[in-house]
Amino acid sequence: MSAIEIARDVRAGSRSARDVVEEHLATIAGREAELHAFNLVLADSALAQADEVDRRVAAGEDPGPLAGVPVALKDNLCTRGVPTTCSSRMLEGWRPPYDATVVTRLREAGAVVVGKTNMDEFAMGSSTENSAFGPTRNPHDTSRVPGGSSGGSAAAVAAGFAALALGSDTGGSIRQPAALCGVVGVKPTYGLVSRYGLVAFASSLDQIGPLAGSVADAALALEVIAGHDRADSTSIPHAAPTLSGLLERGVDGLRIGVVRELVEGIDPDVGTRLSKAAAALEAAGAKVDEASVPAVTVGLSAYYVLATAEASSNLARYDGVRYGLRVDGDDVGAMYGATRAAGFGAEVKRRIMLGTYALSAGYYDAYYGQAQRVRTLILADFEAAYGSYDLLLAPTAPTTAFALGAKTADPLAMYLSDVCTIPSNMAGHPAISVPYGRGDDGLPVGVQLLAPALGEATMFRAAAALERSLVP
Amino acid sequence: MTTVTTTSWEMVVGLEVHCELATATKLFCSCRNAFGDEPNTNVCPVCLGLPGSLPVVNRHAVELAMRVGLALHCSVEPSIFHRKNYFYPDMPKDYQVSQYDEPLNVGGWLDLPDGSRVGVTRAHMEEDTGKTTHVGGGGGRIHGADHSLVDYNRAGVPLVEIVSEPDIRSAEAAKAYVNELRAILVAIGASDARMEEGSLRIDANISLRPAGTDALGTRAEIKNLNSVRSLGRALEYEVRRQTLRLEAGEVVVQETRHWNEDEGRTSSMRSKEEAYDYRYFPEPDLVPLAPSEEWLAGVRAGLPVLPADRRVALGGAAGVPATDASVATVVQQGLDGLVAAAIEAGADGRLALNRAANELAHRTAPDVAAFTQVLRMEGDGRLTATQAKAVLAELVASGGDPEAIAAAKGYEALEGDVVAAAVDAAIAGNPGEWERYAGGEAKLAGFFVGKVMAATKGKADGKAVTALLRERLGAS
User: Do B59 and B183 reside in the same domain of the chain?
Assistant: First the structure.
């Protein structure tokens, strides 16, 4: 049942939020042990929230646009009084004293938080295997990864544990797992959704977005969480966009370019589905041809400089002094060292070291400075492309879901999972991954629509058209 | 002047002054900016750097920082914040949000009361750290301490760091710079500038070079200067220390040194080998700070008249150079309005300045009319200097009418021949002293003035007595 249908029924009083939540909790109970989508299931508080929604409905109050909709939150979104771990030993047991802005907005909209989802530690990874609490498995094939870093959120939606989930996307961490799990995933324009309460990985790239079973559900969720927030200086001073009413408008006359540089080297399974998506958009009235955005090919390496540089600073605060893990040492320096050695996993340490190096005296300009110049170049190339196209089409990930353990020994191969998604983060642009059938291996394939800054409305229209073209 | 100088070495000093801005709330959150509250009560997720929290710049802090820049004749520029990364328990995020290569205020100056000018390189914004108390071990330092207590009330308090050019050449000038800067900061309402509460903190960079040369020597940075007096003492100590090294053919090591007030010496904190690499990079959680022309104009228009301009105005009104010491004192004491009004009402400029600087400093000023009246009485010769001072003291203590006070004290200017008679009597009664005075022992003038004062019960005018003594000297 979709989020829209749940909210409609709960608001109308034809179904209780408690009933909805109990059903989802039952689904979780049935498969969570197998999938490990959650770090924490919040059964009691979810039922209490559902009862509050039902009370408001009974009292004739407006229970909100997401009344009774079960949502799963990536475990890097702060929840007041509820552990927020980032799937790290470092923050195990830490309970934030405040809610993230998106969490407040979801609650005010009547949504019910059913749990905190598993992720790659501090959102660093593409398979959710970097979780300190063990991997999440792909609901479509439990020998496969769900993607990452928002793998728990993607798996939760795919498995019917929640109608909606929130993830965070720094280099593809919403879209890539959405593609691998066969759900819709949105990376909004940078600044459209407040980052207040999102535990930072790379501040200039991080963006919160929804994962959902349909484009319409994702649109509804984004309408709720988007809009200006004074607590985030990088928040765009606009109201949330209106998306839901536009989804039926189709793509007639839209110019859509398939990004040539992002098609090269992808799996045939993915390539075939991408071609079908392009054809479907054309059939729906769009003008589709091949576009070139040359700088995207250098996005990956520049991203791993910028993201790790920011991360090295953002993660400095986990020092054992104030909260989270502390491992004592003979003096403060030894305490720092022992705490961070024990608290962080291998991938987090690798990225902190890379980022620290990139910012070091004498290397700053060659790495950080150069990467910033590449970022400017990517933005310029996108701008040039958007002179000729309304939207761009690309694969979301180069492959379908890979086997657990397939890439854990080879960080570079893992990093390449994000090659198609990183350019949008570098540019601050929105992108959406829409499931577009399955490959010959039987696994879901996602295709990605990219738009210029604040181009969500057009992007969602095309995403909805793509989705409709799949329905038999 | 207690400055240590040698014939061969010149001291070169630049000061970095951290000033806490007098905002109601902190730089990036709405916690109270207050001194002396119960530890860790003015804290929130933002200033504790809790995961997920984000900074939002306090507009009033920016405005006060702009005031500082404008008062120091800086250019206010579009600026950005950077992160300065280093680990320390009093820094909640283990980086400090500061400004680096694009600061808010650049390229100004500050004029000292003696007329010399010190360049101001920059005045940038940053957040303060928490406050650490190291318990156990020695020296109050983190190394060797049993444990440390951290108070984060101060974390995130807005600071402006004012960096001077290395234009200062003496300990006295360094102290004058800090005093002048404090006066400006207080005058513009940017800070209460209380060193004892840490709302003004000074680091000094000092190097020596052979007098008459231009190249800069290797500098030491002195920290833990808790008062203007400490600054002077520490600089004098450093000059001695560096002079000894240089004259022994050794080099001065570039390092940070800690001033120990009790021992009266500096000691090495860390050398260049251990120097931090702060890995500055642009703070991605904040947007560029580019004050609009309108905002800037509004801040400029709201600035009060600054101490240096008040000194110029007062010097002009009194007909003395603005660099006159009494002018500086009168302005520093906030008495320039009173003195100017008295001059306007006909009082002698020099007399008004001197009486205000010496008799009214740190006291409650009398009203303009009464002050002017005392000056007139003195100027007319109806009161001696001594009497005028006594009347002023009474005015300050109890108020009242100067004429009535003088009358009550029995002050009537003595007839000139009474004074002359007293002078002659003093000479006649002390022939030995008079001979020595006549022989050139000028300091004996005081002896005779004292005798005359005693004979006239203090009613004689000291200046008139001195003049009479000279007259008698010429005649003898």
Answer: yes
